[in-house]
Amino acid sequence: MSETVFRLGKKHFFDTKKFPRGFAKSGDFTLGEENLLTQYGDTMLGLESGVLQPENAEEQRFLQVLDNPDLAESKIEKVWMKYVRLSRGRKRFHTLNGRNKPDAADDYTDDEPSLTEED
Q1: What is the pTM (predicted TM-score) of this model?
Q2: Are the C-beta atoms of residues 116 and 84 closer than 8 Å to each other?
Q3: Which of 1, 63, 109, 110 lies deepest, with the highest CB count within 10 Å?
Q4: Nearest to 84 by CA among 102, 65, 103, 98
Q5: How far apart are CA 59 and CA 65, in angstroms?
Q6: Compositional bias of type Acidic residues: which residue ranges (predicted)?
C-alpha cells in the first residue's frame, strides 16, 4: 500500500446500517478497500461533515474531490466515493420479468399441419 499523510481515524469506521456484515462481506468492497475504510473512514467522514479541518495537502485535496468526484485519483479518494455511491445512492432492483408484454400472436405458433382425413 502506498504511503499516505492522511490521518488515521480516532476509531474504526463501520456502517452497520448499510453494511451490517461488514464492508468486504457485502460483496461490494475488496479486503483492501475494507481496510482503508475501517482505518481512515472516521477521518474522511469528519472532513466531509465539517467536524474536522484539513491538516495537510492530501486532506485538502480530499475536500476538493468531494465537490467533484471525477477528480478522485488516490485509493482513499476512490474508496470513499465508492462508499458514498453505494451507501447513499439509490439501490438498484432487478426483476425477473420484463416490462413489455409479448404480442398474443408471439405466444403460440402452429407450425404443424392439421390432421385431416384427406390421406
Answers
A1: 0.69
A2: no
A3: 63
A4: 65
A5: 10
A6: 105-119
Helical H segments across 5-74, by residue range: 31-49, 57-67
Q: What is the 3-state secondary structure (H, E, C) of 58-83?
A: HHHHHHHHHHCHHHCCCHHHHHHHHH
Domain assignment of residue 40, given as a range: 24-89
Q: What is the pLDDT of residues 76-118, one digit of tens each?
A: 999 999 988 888 876 665 566 666 665 555 555 556 665 666 5
Q: Is residue 99 part of a domain?
A: no
Number of domains into which the chain is organized: 1
Place of cell 482505518: 39
Domain membership of residue 31 (yes or no) is: yes
Is 84 within a domain? yes
Q: What is the DSSP letter of 118?
A: T
Amino acid at position 110, single letter? D
Distance from C-alpha of 59 to C-alpha of 41, rounded to nearest angstrom: 12
In a domain, residue 95? The reply is no
84: how many CB neighbours lie within 10 A of its CB?
14
3-state secondary structure of 85: helix
